[in-house]
Write a structure and sequence with these properties.
The chain is α/β, with parallel strands linked by helices and 273 residues long. The chain contains twelve helices and nine strands. The chain has two domains: 83 residues, no CATH class; 173 residues, Rossmann fold, CATH 3.40.50. Helix 4 packs across helix 7 and helix 8 crosses helix 11. The chain is globular and about 60 Å long.
Length: 273
C-alpha cells in the first residue's frame, strides 16, 4: 500500500493539535496509515521532515514528489488581463492578491494588518483581493477587516473558476503567501507561472518551492511584509526580475514530471525495474 500524505499540519500546528478533530480523527487516522503503508509519498522535504517527526516514520520509507503547475497557468499580458479581470470581478483599482483558505495557519490576518498599515501611512491605492473561503474562519477574518478599516477596499471571492484563475493571477500586481506553515504552497507556483511577483513567508516549504524567485518575510511581522510590498510596488526593475525568475522557476514543476516520478516509484516498489 502506497499512501500520499500532503502534510501533517493538524498534528504540527498549535492552531489545531489540541482540537477534537485532531484528537478523534486526524491523529488516529494518520498513525494508522503510517503503520500500514509500505511507502509514503509527500510533496516537499519540509513535509517529509514533519511526517518523520510527527509519525515516527523513517526517511527511507518516504519519497518526495513535488506538485506541478497546470498548463493553463502561463505568462499573459498584464494590461489586457487586468482590464478583463477587473471588469469581471468588479475591482476598479490595481490589487494585491491572496489565494487560499482562511484557516489560522494561512496567517491572513498578518496580510490584512500590513495592508491596513500601507493604506493608512503610505497612501497605498491598491485594493486587496482574497480568493478562498472557509465556513468556520471567514467571520473572524472579515471582522478583522472591519476593525482595521479596510473592509471597503478588500474583496472576498469564495471561488474562482479554473479558467478565470490564471487571468486573476496575471492581473494582480503581486501575490502574497503569508502562511505560517505549508505542505507545499501551490498558489506560489501558479502565480509565478503567470508572471506575477510573489512575496512569501520565510518558513516551512515555501522557500523550498519558490527558491530565489520570490521575496520573503517573517510571517510574524506585518511590518516587514509591508516593507516588502512597498519595495516591489516601487521598483519596476524588481518586478521584472521576479517575473522572469518566477516563470523559469515554475517550469521546473510539471504534472507530467510528477506522474513519471510516481510511476517510477510504483515500478521500483513492485520490483518491476
Amino acid at each position: 500500500m502506497i499512501v500520499s500524505i500532503m502534510d501533517v499540519i493538524h498534528l504540527s500546528s498549535s492552531a489545531y493539535r489540541r482540537s477534537l478533530g485532531t484528537f478523534f480523527y486526524a491523529r488516529p487516522m494518520l498513525n494508522a496509515v503510517a503503520r500500514k503503508a509500505d511507502h509514503i509519498v509527500t510533496v516537499s522535504h519540509h513535509s517529509k521532515s514533519e511526517i518523520m517527526q510527527a509519525l515516527g516514520i523513517p526517511g527511507s520509507k518516504i519519497t518526495v514528489i513535488p506538485c506541478g503547475v497546470s498548463e493553463e497557468f502561463a505568462p499573459q499580458s498584464p494590461s489586457v488581463e487586468s482590464r478583463d479581470a477587473a471588469k469581471i470581478l468588479g475591482i476598479q483599482t490595481s490589487f494585491l492578491l491572496y489565494v487560499g483558505n482562511l484557516k489560522p495557519h494561512k496567517n491572513v490576518v498578518t496580510l490584512l494588518r500590513a495592508f491596513a498599515q500601507l493604506r493608512k501611512h503610505s497612501k497605498l491605492r491598491h485594493s486587496l483581493l482574497i480568493v478562498g473561503d472557509d465556513a468556520r474562519w471567514k467571520r473572524s477574518v472579515v471582522d478583522e477587516c472591519v476593525r482595521l478599516g479596510i473592509r471597503d477596499c478588500t474583496t472576498f471571492l469564495p471561488h474562482v473558476s479554473q479558467s478565470l484563475l490564471p487571468r486573476v493571477y496575471a492581473a494582480a500586481d503581486l501575490l502574497v503567501m503569508p502562511s505560517t506553515v505549508e505542505g507545499f504552497g501551490l498558489p506560489v507556483l501558479e502565480a509565478m507561472a503567470c508572471g506575477t511577483p510573489v512575496i512569501a513567508s520565510r518558513t516551512a516549504s515555501l522557500p523550498e518551492v519558490a527558491g530565489d524567485a520570490a521575496i520573503y518575510f517573517d510571517p510574524a511581522s506585518s511590518e516587514e511584509l509591508g516593507v516588502q510590498i512597498e519595495r516591489i510596488l516601487h521598483s519596476p526593475e524588481l518586478q521584472a526580475s521576479l517575473r522572469n525568475k518566477g516563470i523559469q522557476r515554475a517550469k521546473q514543476f510539471t504534472w507530467r514530471q510528477s506522474a513519471r516520478q510516481h510511476i517510477e516509484l510504483y515500478n521500483r516498489l513492485l520490483g518491476l525495474n
